[in-house]
Structure formats: C-alpha cells, structure tokens
Write a structure and sequence with these properties.
Elements: H1 2-9, H2 13-21, E1 25-27, E2 44-51, H3 64-69, E3 83-91, E4 98-102, E5 108-112, E6 118-123, H4 127-141, H5 146-169, E7 175-180, H6 181-191, E8 194-198, E9 202-203, E10 210-211, E11 214-218, H7 220-228, H8 237-257, H9 264-277, E12 278-281, H10 286-292, H11 295-298, E13 301-305, E14 310-314, E15 317-321, H12 324-335, E16 358-363, H13 370-380, E17 384-390, E18 399-402, H14 407-417, E19 423-424, E20 432-437, H15 454-457, E21 480-481, E22 487-488
Parallel strand pairs: 1-12, 2-7, 4-13, 8-22, 16-17, 16-20, 18-19
Antiparallel strand pairs: 2-3, 3-4, 5-6, 7-12, 8-11, 9-10, 13-21, 14-15, 18-20
Region (Disordered): 438-489
Protein name: LCP family protein
Biased composition (Low complexity): 443-459
C-alpha cells in the first residue's frame, strides 16, 4: 500500500517503478488460486499480510537484543509464522471508494492448503504456519537446505493463507503483499516520526505501548508497539485491528502532505526497505495498479473489521467464533461482487447469476431430508434441479464435483456451501454438478436466506450459521476512514 502510494503521487513514477521492481522479492503463490471465484469487472482485490515472524527472509533469527529491545517482541521462538494481520482491500474498476476489511487473527475457521486440501479448523492466522511446517519437513527430507528451504516453505505458507481467505470470503484475491515485523519496523524507521491519535492514554507492558491521549509522534519502536497492543484495550484484538487501520491512514497522510515524494533520498530509502523486507505476487504490475488506485492516497478509503459471533475455547486456546455464510454475504455485497448482473434469470445466494447446470444432491450427512431440501434451495437460486438421493455411504466432508461444461456452476456452489474447491470428475455427466453432503453439513434454519453454511459452520465453535443475517452489515467496531489521522482507542 505504501509503495503504491509512492508511485501514485511521485513526479518520477517511471524512475520509481524501475527502481522498485529491480530486485523486488516476488512470489508464485497466487497460481494456486486459478480455479477460485472470478470478478464481474476489472476491480482489484489486494490482500495485505502481516507475518508475526522474528526471522529474516532467509530464515535466520533476528538478533536477540534487537527483538527484545527495539521490537519489544520477546524471543525469536514467539510468533512463529502466524499472519497476525490480514487486510483485504477492494479497489473498484471505476475508481470509486476503496473498501477494506480486517480479518481478526483468532477467527476460528476451516483452513486450507494451497492445493485445496483441508488443514482442519484452526485460527485463521495459523494457516500459514501449518503449511510452512509440513512443507519444511517434507523438503528437508528431500535434501533442501538453507535459504532455499526457507523460501520454498514460505511459498506453501502463502498459498495456504490465500486459499483460506478466498474460501472463507468467497471473493477472488488478485494481488497480495507480505511484510514481517522487521519490515514494518524498517518502513516506520524511514518515515518516522509518524503521528497517530488515541482517545485514551495507554500503558501496556506486553507491547511497550505507553502513550498519552491525543496526538502522538511515534518513532519506529513506538509505532510497532502502537499497532501490536491488545492488552488493556476494551475489545482486545478487535481494537488492535483499528490501530493497524489508523496507522495505514497516518502513513499515507504523511506521504502525501509532508513532501516525501519530492525527497529523492527518502524515497530511495523507502524503496530499499520494500525490496528487502516485502514480498509481492509475481503477477503484480505495480505501475498499472498505481494508475487505478489513486483513491488509496485521496482519502476515499473505508476500513472495517469483520464481525465475530462470540468467543470459545478450542484445543485449550481462546478463539473467535464466526458465521462464514454471513461473512461471505457481507464481503460480496460490500465489494459489489455479482451486483452488476444482466437483467433476467435467478441469482445464487452470493449475488451472482446462477451458471447453467443440472444439480444432483446425494445425502451422506445422516440428516433426514437434507439432500431434497438442499436441492430445493439450489433450484430456487437458479440452478436446474436434478435428483436427490442417499449416498452409497456416509462421508465426513461435503464435496462438489462436476462434469464437462459445469465448472462455473460448481465453483459457485462450492463457495455457497463453503467446501473445498469443486473438482472435475469423469463419472459426473456433462452439464451436471454432483454434491455429496457430509456429516459436516449443517442445514439452514427455517426463515434463513436458504444458503447453507456448509462445512465450516457445521463445526464446533464456528458460529450461528443458521441465524438470519441482518439487512445491513454489522462490523466489529467503528469504521476507520482514511484521509487524515483518525483517532482510535
């Protein structure tokens, strides 16, 4: 986001572009999402990933004294490869208002590997680390060592994070940028002091945040404490997401108003940090993106934090419970995915027009009548009803398979049911989608919108999947609007 802002407003964009892209670290992780949901227009969805790792890009521990004194982040063993910050931004094709959602790090959801296989129910922040660990062990056994081992293992972590977020929210991810604690610190060090505003004084020994109420000018160490504090805040992690949103607004405000774009030395320092500490996808043409994303620096950006349904304890850890079906509905509606459909024809529950296909539903869930009820719901969404019958045997997970010509409909239905990505099958007739309901399937409650929440909402601690969504989105806390220095808790 910072690099895009630099390119948008600088008077030497071509120099900046070539300087930035020469030596930039890129990732192939987006390639695993090729079968995910698509856009209706040329909008761009950008996922910002903050990795809570105390290691450099090659897997080396950061100096102990630096981690403890400057980052105030404990030992290098803490944090592992958790994605403690996930912000999904939507940049409209027509240059309208940019909207962004922070995903609370402790949301308890179905997590995925990049190949679409399920990791299980975990905190969303853990998808990266589970995939990294599995890949690290496998690659190490194959003889991969050193920096190559770290780089390849992290690719699996990125793929898992992208797949998990895309499956959870049901919208495509077009680009991503990843930065770790050191990268954040380095960027803040180039830009310091950075002004932020607090509604109340804080003094937190865990993060090192010790600030009075009102405006505060922060150095790099203080900036990291500001965005990491959660202890002592009324809503804990949820309030921390607002800190992160406010910090981004303050950084862009500083870039725009304090002449940094005309300071070639400071610009070069910023580029050097981005190249050293940041990873972006290899499909990202930063200059083209900058021409579309002028509203990132124009103040026309609204940040919200996705809602939770409550709290629970899973495997001895505190988690946030969520309603995946509702999250999909909120994000798709806010991003306008499926909102600009031609007239005529029914639409699926996600707002997209139902793609042509005949749907067959088989019941392996053990819930009487589940197949026929689900088939009725799919027919009302615009798909052609096929047959409903019992599966040959029970199965644990709900699956979606498709025959020739039915891939688009299958992908829509997989998103609707929150299953693993739909798979092609030669045993499914052409033009048909075959759904086999598993024991993880939860039928929608009477009076709901008919959209089953599927596997994620059927698991323990996953939220009130059968509840009726409210007519207007409900977010966690107030909206943080960019364009100045917002004051937060």
């Amino acid at each position: 986001m910072v690099s895009a802002s630099v390119l948008v407003l600088s008077g030497f964009a071509w120099y900046a572009y070539h300087s930035l892209t020469n030596g930039l670290t890129t990732s192939n992780a987006l390639g695993v999402l090729k079968n995910g949901p698509g856009h209706l227009d040329n909008a761009v969805n950008l996922l910002l990933i903050g990795l809570d790792s105390r290691k450099d890009q090659n897997g080396n521990d950061l100096p102990k004294q630096f981690v403890q004194d400057e980052l105030h982040a404990g030992s290098s063993d803490i944090g592992y490869y958790n994605t403690n910050t996930l912000i999904l931004m939507h940049i409209p094709a027509n240059g309208g208002k940019v909207t962004a959602f922070s995903i609370p790090r402790d949301d308890y959801v179905q997590t995925y590997n990049g190949d679409g296989t399920r990791q299980g129910m975990h905190k969303i922040k853990e998808a990266y680390g589970y995939a990294y660990s599995a890949a690290h062990d496998k690659l190490s056994a194959q003889g991969v060592t050193g920096a190559d081992l770290e780089h390849q293992s992290r690719e699996y972590g990125r793929e898992a994070t992208l797949a998990t977020v895309q499956n959870l929210l049901g919208v495509p991810i077009d680009h991503f940028a990843e930065v770790n604690l050191l990268g954040f610190y380095d960027i803040a060090q180039v830009l310091q002091p950075i002004q932020v505003c607090l509604k109340h004084p804080v003094n937190d020994n865990y993060s090192g945040a010790d600030f009075p109420a009102g405006l505060n000018n922060l150095n790099a160490k203080q900036a990291l404490a500001f965005v990491r504090q959660r202890h002592g805040l009324t809503n804990g992690d949820l309030d921390r997401t607002h800190r992160q949103q406010a910090f981004l607004s303050s950084v862009v405000h500083k870039l725009k108003t304090e002449g940094i774009f005309s300071d070639l030395g400071k610009m070069q320092d910023l580029f050097n940090v981005v190249k050293k500490d940041m990873v972006i996808d290899n499909q990202w043409n930063v200059l083209d993106f900058a021409s579309q994303a002028t509203n990132l620096t124009g103040g026309n950006v609204a940040f919200n934090t996705l809602p939770i349904t409550g709290f629970a304890t899973e495997n001895g850890e505190s988690v946030n419970t969520v309603d995946p079906a509702y999250l999909k509905q909120v994000v798709q509606a806010t991003f306008g995915e499926g909102a600009s459909q031609p007239s005529g024809g029914k639409k699926s529950s996600s707002g997209q027009k139902a793609a042509p296909a005949t749907v067959d539903v088989y019941n392996g869930s053990g819930i009487a009548g589940a197949a026929s009820n689900e088939l009725k719901d799919l027919a009302s969404a615009g798909y052609t009803a096929g047959q409903a019958a019992n599966a040959s045997q029970p199965q644990s997970t709900t699956t979606v398979a498709y025959g020739a010509g039915a891939q688009q409909a299958a992908q829509q239905i997989a998103g609707r049911l929150n299953t693993s990505p739909a798979a092609a099958s030669s045993s499914v007739p052409a033009g048909h989608v075959q759904i086999t309901l598993g024991t993880d399937f939860t039928a929608p409650a009477p009076g709901s919108n008919g959209s089953s929440s599927g596997s994620s909402s059927g698991a323990s601690g996953s939220g009130s999947s059968g509840s009726q969504p409210s007519p207007s989105p409900t977010f966690a806390g107030n909206t943080v609007k960019m364009g100045g220095i917002p004051c937060v808790d």
